[in-house]
Structure formats: structure tokens, C-alpha cells
Amino acid sequence: MKRGRTVVLGGGAWGTALANTFAAAGRETLLWARDAATIEAINSRGENPRYLPGISLDPTLRATSDAAVALERATLVLAVVPAQTLRAVLGSLASAIPGGVPVVICAKGIERDTGELPSQVLRSVLPGNQPASLSGPSFATDLARGLPTAVTVAAQDRTLAAGLSAALSTPRLRCYSSDDLTGVEVGGALKNVLALAAGAAAGAGLGASAQAALITRGFVELRRLGEALGGRSETLMGLSGLGDLMLTCGSSQSRNFAYGEALGRSEDLNGRPLAEGVATAAIAVRIARERGVDAPIIEAVDAILKGEQTIREAVTALMTRPLRHEAD
Ligand SMILES: NC(=O)C1=CN([C@@H]2O[C@H](COP(=O)(O)OP(=O)(O)OC[C@H]3O[C@@H](n4cnc5c(N)ncnc54)[C@H](O)[C@@H]3O)[C@@H](O)[C@H]2O)C=CC1
Ligand SMILES: O=C(CO)COP(=O)(O)O
């Protein structure tokens, strides 16, 4: 793949952390953001106090709100805005994104209104650009602090995926390539729903045993739904499925886990940071029903979020389901 300018769209926690990683590795990188104060803070003080407070960014990282100038010479674009805003953001930038340039989506979610995965959204908005997805266990604050991790970069075309993995890997970010775009996207989206469940169990004080049982059975649902949508089992067992599940279901550093925890403690949920799993839970339930996939934990998460069920009621319902063979 031709090496040139990487443009990261989105000045939130993950967009800033990724752009910072590439800049620190000496790659020509430009961060596009809409918030003037964020751009000013990155360019003049090397920090993003709103999304990555207390972290010093690489002095070479530059940010701009001028999409036309940023994207003019882009050879690679990363879309790092919330999944539910992806269509609007890409739509507004469509004329500035050069045709043929791969667009790597780093959002984790399923579009609530359509049931489309981020790559499907991209295909409908930017038919002249090949979609790819970057997903795996990777807290923005870890990466921004220079801590190492490994993720998966997927594209339908195996050669493109391998090229992207080489282009995006740095000494701190090891990118494995995959041609299972659907599996990688579904794994990243559904682990957020299960992190809400794990957080709610922790917040409600259900104990470590329940937590482990919930995550394990939740992972069965992630695999069932992922495979029903066309993802491969081994992908869902990889960094973007199991790997990210292990990370986000075990730490309050995850915004989804922390949201679930607050829910479990009956705390006020207004004004909390982004928790992608909330929107994804609703559409995942619809997709599971349409495809005849049994997903009781995902259903319970959605029902609790909608106030249709209490955590206590959900636990009783899950515990009294007909007994079954584990592997069925
Ligand atoms: N924060 C993390 O540790 C990780 C996040 N992700 C995923 O990355 C995606 C983005 O997450 P974060 O950056 O953490 O969220 P964030 O809440 O920190 O930032 C979101 C950014 O998107 C921007 N944005 C929202 N709507 C926009 C619009 N209409 N036009 C332009 N910009 C808009 C906001 O201004 C903000 O800069 C999510 O799907 C998340 O699941 C993936 C891996 C790690
Ligand atoms: O996806 C993530 C880590 O891999 C971040 O998870 P949260 O969005 O729950 O913070």
C-alpha cells in the first residue's frame, strides 16, 4: 500500500489516541475534528483535555476542522466517530474523501435504525471507497499513554487487509489482518452489549460467579448471532470478539461496563460518556428475533435499558429458563 497521509476523522478519545499513535511512529497524520477548542488544545498544547485528560500527546500531531484541506492528499482514512453518527459524518465529508482510498472504520456498533454494520453504511454513503474495520481490545487511554496492544484489521479483500495491517501497525499497536469483515464488526459491536450486562451484574452485587457465567453464556450469544450474520467462529474467538470481551467485561475503564455498573446501582444515567452498547442492544434484539437466534442475555440487557424489566426480574427469568445441553 502506498504510504502517505493518514487522516483520522473524529477528535474524541479513540480518534485522538489512534492519530497520536501514528504521529508518534513518525507517520504523516492529520486529525479532523469539529470542536474548535479540541483542535486548539491539540495544536498549541499537545493535549485533548475533554477526552484524554492528563495525557501528553506527541508534539508532531496536528488537528484541523478543514476537511477539504485535510483529506485532499489522504492515502488512508480512519473513521472514528460513534456508530450511530457514522452515516451523517461520512455523508457530510463524502465529497472531500478521495475515491479509491480505503476507509478503516474504528466504531463499534450496529446502526440502530437500519441494522446495518458500519461497513454497510460506508458502502452506501461512499460506494467508491473500500471499507475496512479496526477492532480489538484497546482502551484509548492505554494506547494514548503508549501502552501496547493488538487488534484486528479486516477487509473483504485479503491483500487489502494485509496492506492495512502493515500500514497501521506501530511498535505499540500490533494489527493482525483478517478477511472476515463481518465477524470483526459483529464481535466489536456485541461485546459492548455484554459489557453492559457484566457491569450491571457487578453494580447489582450479583457476585463473581454470576459475572463469569454471564460473560460465558453471553459469548455464546455473540458467536451465534455473529455466525448468523456471516461471521466466522474463529474470528469471533479472536481479538475483536473474545479478546475485547475479556477487556471490557472486566474493567470499569470501559464506558459500557461503567454504564452497566451505574444501572446496577440504580444511579442517574444522564450525561454519562458514550456507551455504544445501548443503541446496539436494541437493534441486536431485532436482528436476533428476525434470524431466529436465541439471545436471552442480549434481550435482557435491552429490556433493562428500556425499563421493561428490573435486574432482579431479568436474573430470575434467565435462571428459570428450560434446562438445556450446554453445547446446543
Ligand atoms: N474510547 C475507546 O477506548 C475506544 C472506542 N472505540 C470506538 O470508537 C468510536 C468512537 O469512540 P470515542 O472516540 O471513544 O468516543 P468519544 O465520545 O470520546 O468521541 C466521539 C467523537 O465523535 C465526535 N462526533 C460525534 N458526532 C459527530 C458528528 N456528527 N460530526 C463530527 N464529529 C462527531 C465527537 O465530537 C467526538 O469527538 C466508538 O464506536 C467506540 O466504540 C473503539 C475502541 C476503543
Ligand atoms: O472498545 C473499547 C476497548 O476495546 C472501549 O470500550 P468502551 O467503549 O466500553 O469504553
What does this structure look like?
The protein is an alpha/beta fold. It has 2 domains: 5-179, Rossmann fold, CATH 3.40.50; 183-319, N-(1-d-carboxylethyl)-l-norvaline Dehydrogenase, domain 2, CATH 1.10.1040. It is built from 15 helices and 8 strands. An 8-stranded mixed beta sheet has the order 3-2-1-4-5-6-7-8, with helices on both faces. The longest helix has 23 residues, at 181-203. The termini are far apart. The structure holds 1,4-dihydronicotinamide adenine dinucleotide (NAI) and 1,3-dihydroxyacetonephosphate. The site of 1,4-dihydronicotinamide adenine dinucleotide (NAI) has 26 residues, from helix 1 and helix 4. Sn-glycerol 3-phosphate binds at residues 108, 136, 138, 191, 244, 254-256. Catalyzes the reduction of the glycolytic intermediate dihydroxyacetone phosphate (DHAP) to sn-glycerol 3-phosphate (G3P), the key precursor for phospholipid synthesis. Substrate binds at residues 108, 255-256.
Defining traits:
328 residues; alpha/beta; Rossmann fold; 2 domains; eight-stranded mixed β-sheet; 15 helices; 8 strands; binds 1,4-dihydronicotinamide adenine dinucleotide; binds 1,3-dihydroxyacetonephosphate; oxidoreductase; G3P_DH_NAD-dep_C
| Count of spatially separate domains | 2
Q: Tell me the name of the CATH class of the largest domain.
A: Alpha Beta
Order of helices and strands: EHEHEHEHEHEHEHEHHHHHHHH
The small-molecule ligands in this entry are: 1,4-dihydronicotinamide adenine dinucleotide, 1,3-dihydroxyacetonephosphate
The appropriate CATH architecture of the largest domain is: 3-Layer(aba) Sandwich
Rounded to the nearest angstrom, the distance between the terminal CA atoms is: 44 Å
Cα radius of gyration in angstroms:
19 Å
Query: Per the principal axes of the C-alpha atoms, what is the gross shape?
Result: globular
Tell me roughly what share of residues is in helical segments. 40-55%
Q: What is the chains' assembly state?
A: single chain
Q: Count of DSSP E strands? A: 8
Order of adjacent strands in the largest pleated sheet: 3-2-1-4-5-6-7-8
- What would the average pLDDT be, to the nearest integer? 97
